[in-house]
Amino acid sequence: MMQMGDVPIVQVTGAIVVLCSLLWLLLTGNKAPQGVPPGSFGWPLIGESIEFLRWRRKISTFALFKEKRKKYGNIFKTHLFFSPTVVITGADAHKLLQNDGYRSLTSGHSSAMKDLFGQSLILADGDQHKQMRKAIMAGINSKVLKNQIPILEELTIQTLNSWEGNEISASEEFAKFTFYSILGLLISMKPSPQAEHLRDYFSVYAKDGISLPLKIPGTAYNRALQARKKLVDEITKIMDQRRKDNRLHEDVLAHFMHTQDLPENDSRLSDDEIIDNMLFFIFSGFETTSTALSRIIQLLADHPHELKLVQAEQKCIQEEIGNNAPLTWEKLKSMPYTSMVISEALRLSHLGTEISFRTAKTDIAFEGYTIPRGWNIIVDRASTDINPEIFKEPHKFNPSRFKENVPPYVFMPFGGGVRSCPGMEFANLEIMIFIYHLVNNYSWHLTKPYDGLEYTGIVPKPKSGVPIFVERLRQEH
Ligand code: HEM
Predict the structure, then answer these.
(1) Does residue 8 fall inside a structural domain?
(2) Which of 210, 264, 285, 340 is the 20 to 30 Å CA partner of 456?
(3) Number of H helices, E strands in the chain
(4) In angstroms, what is the span from residue 318 Cα to ligand 1's centroid?
(5) Whose CA is nearest to atom 24 of ligand 1?
């Protein structure tokens, strides 16, 4: 997204785009092949990218897709970021992702994504993706995750202490909390000035990275690339330090670096792959979880009956393990009502509107149309989440709906198949631990009503930032 100060760049870029567009129009006629879904390609070359970014910033991608669906039907074509793109939704779309393996889909390849994500999972395909994922999943195994429980508890307690007696923006606070949680998981870094520097660079990388990919000084995209360079330098320094001091670490970076000692044909990660995957982990993991937590805290504040049910469940757990005793893996796995609250909040958070992005490796037959080889595909999960044919009264917060079995391929907030979310367990840990300490020890109320989501970063965030006032509960004797 461009900024006010970029006017000359906008003019020069505009002139270049118009010239290229005319040339492209003359050469191709901006025609789509036969049998493709209905829809519009928009302007030559830039297609509907500007419209997409404008809707994204002002209303939501979700609303844009809804409008397009009204006009063209469930599946439609568009042209985004220099590539023909098809937007699909529904159980069949999820089924395609879940079952395709590496046959006809690869993750969206564009030079912009290569600039931003380097050699991370998102750009790997086939055997390379499989090997890399094997190394990565070994790095976040259940031992590593169990070690995170006391670390997350400490961070949660510190965070909640700092909220006590204050009005805070839950979204801003959760963005910090989830960023520090991931830094703890990846590099054992606690909140500190160094961690705060990383957070500053990361904010620019994540926010400005979602813009027109123009590598020209002064553009948002260029700022994102500069921020990425700083992050790469910082992680490189940490790796160099670890190689010098030989201390034992029990975090994801230690596991990733350990793969370099494995035999040659095993799942090794190069330095570049380690760094790029660490950045991609933060990119994928911190705002998603932060939005989920913000929505949970807001939805529970607005629904006292459901809050009471969560409190009752968490109180039982506290009584079972004893006040001030550490939480255990087993207890965190036995919170059925809280799990339903999390699922319901995820369903209502629209996190999956643009999260699943692919490119067709072959022509794909889908719902009576052809998605041609080389075209990009966006799977709009969020529309399925509020489909009234699947979820009765879809906008109502009703965690108990998850007591019933949800039909297959319908609700998949963490994706499915070869590219399902490797951070799912960790995200659940963060959320469960936070809820446990919050509802057992604090009360809170919204100081401004919830007014929907905005799309300024990687995933939607509550517009108002969810301002709340937090008080400590008096302990009953
Ligand atoms: C509530 C929180 C989260 C949600 C809803 C979520 C959702 C998702 C979804 C839907 C995908 C699949 C996208 C696709 O189909 O291409 C995905 C992939 C991914 N997620 Fe998450 N995620 C969350 C938290 C996390 C966390 C905490 C981490 C890291 C610690 C993480 C790391 C990743 C990575 C690395 C991928 C890419 C996997 C691949 O391409 O093989 N996510 N996530």
Answers:
(1) no
(2) 340
(3) 17, 12
(4) 30
(5) 285
Atom of ligand 1 nearest to the CA of 124: 40
Q: Is the pTM of this model over 0.95?
A: no
If you take atom 41 of ligand 1, which residue's CA is the nearest one?
Answer: 419
SS3 of residue 322 by DSSP = coil
Domain count, the chain: 1
Question: What is the distance in A from the centroid of ligand 1 to the CA of 424?
Answer: 7
3 domain-assigned: no
Instruction: Please give the ipTM for the structure prediction.
Output: 0.99
Task: Summarize pLDDT for 132-183 with one digit per residue, the tens.
Answer: 999 999 989 999 999 999 999 999 999 999 999 999 999 999 999 999 999 9
Domain that holds residue 434: 54-472
- Rounded to the nearest whole angstrom, what is the distance from the C-alpha of residue 445 to the centroid of ligand 1? 30
Distance CA 332, CA 315 (A): 13
Residue 337 lies in a domain: yes
Residue nearest to atom 43 of ligand 1 (CA): 421
Q: Does residue 11 belong to any structural domain of this protein?
A: no
Residue pLDDT, tens place only, 338-393:
999 999 999 999 886 667 889 999 999 999 999 999 999 999 988 899 999 999 99
Q: How many CB atoms lie within 10 A of CB 366?
A: 18
Strand 356-360 to 105-107 pairing: antiparallel
